[in-house]
Design brief:
Structural class: mainly alpha
Order of helices and strands: HHHHHHHHH
Number of strands: 0
Strand content: under 5%
Distance between the termini: 27 Å
Shape: globular
Radius of gyration: 18 Å
Number of helices: 9
Largest sheet: none
């Protein structure tokens, strides 16, 4: 039980570090494309307070203690760029901003995973120091899973924005109506998964 609790705590801490990195990636891309709105709103910083979303964080905390889903799933406060300030056009700009957070999280995860491969064996010899590579492994996994998870086309995930910008105007307006129910749908899906897994195991 102690090992499971420790792993859950590593997942939660990793998530709380990964979310500001993910969201600041969105804000940085917006700034590069000419929209300083997210930066002026404090979204280009690494301050946890600027990026935390209560429901998204609660989901991460609860799922961290689920053996099958302890991978840091959740979300931060969405970065909302001003489409009309984008140098490359409204839709293209918003699309790139949405992809930026995903790619940033994925790159961080891959880089940390590569670092782990070159860590000295002495780090694994001590029962206390071994927590360092263990945490780095969890941190890499959380960032990669955060990138993949955000591809789901439900608000407030990045996949919602990506799909919205790619849809024709009429379909985009209809799709936008799903934003109200997005967080509830995400919670319902992921809290049902362990139950469905148990049913499958019993079968």
């Amino acid at each position: 039980m102690a090992i499971n609790v420790l792993q859950a705590l590593m997942v939660i801490i990793s998530f709380l570090i990964a979310i500001p990195l993910h969201e600041s990636g969105h804000a940085l891309m917006a700034s590069l494309l000419g929209d300083r709105t997210p930066r002026e709103e404090g979204r280009q910083s690494l301050s946890l307070r600027s990026h935390i979303d209560p429901v998204g964080t609660l989901m991460c905390v609860l799922l961290a203690f689920q053996p099958l889903l302890a991978v840091g799933l959740g979300w931060g406060k969405p970065v909302k760029p001003d489409p009309w300030k984008m140098r490359i056009g409204a839709n293209a700009g918003v699309l790139l901003v949405a992809w930026a957070g995903l790619i940033f999280s994925l790159l961080i995860g891959v880089i940390v995973a590569l670092i782990i491969r070159f860590l000295p064996d002495t780090l694994y010899a001590n029962q206390f120091i071994v927590r360092i590579p263990q945490f780095l492994t969890v941190f890499a996994s959380v960032n990669i899973c955060l990138a993949i998870f955000n591809l789901i086309p439900l608000y407030p995930l990045d996949g919602y924005t990506i799909l919205y910008t790619l849809l024709p105007s009429r379909q985009a307006v209809q799709f936008a109506k799903s934003a109200t129910y997005g967080p509830l749908l995400i919670l319902a899906i992921f809290f049902l998964l362990p139950f469905l897994a148990q049913l499958a195991g019993l079968g």
